[in-house]
Known about the structure:
Structural class: alpha+beta
Number of helices: 2
Largest sheet: 4 strands, antiparallel
Number of strands: 4
Radius of gyration: 12 Å
Number of domains: 1
Shape: globular
Helix content: 10-25%
Strand content: over 45%
Order of helices and strands: HHEEEE
Amino acid sequence: MELEEFNRLSDQAQKELLIDAKKITEREDDVAKYEVFQIDNFLVEVSRSVVHKFRKILRVSSLEDTPQ
């Protein structure tokens, strides 16, 4: 899947793809848990509310645009 294809998907469809995505890293604070997933050649950063249990996609970026 290409980044442009992912961006055209509905919010629900994007979140469903995260189920099988490779988790790269995660961190947590008092408000949320932050996770970064890799899908093909791009990354998806997600926050998950600790209190309300909802998930929000914060950022999607190409691996080429990600600093190493």
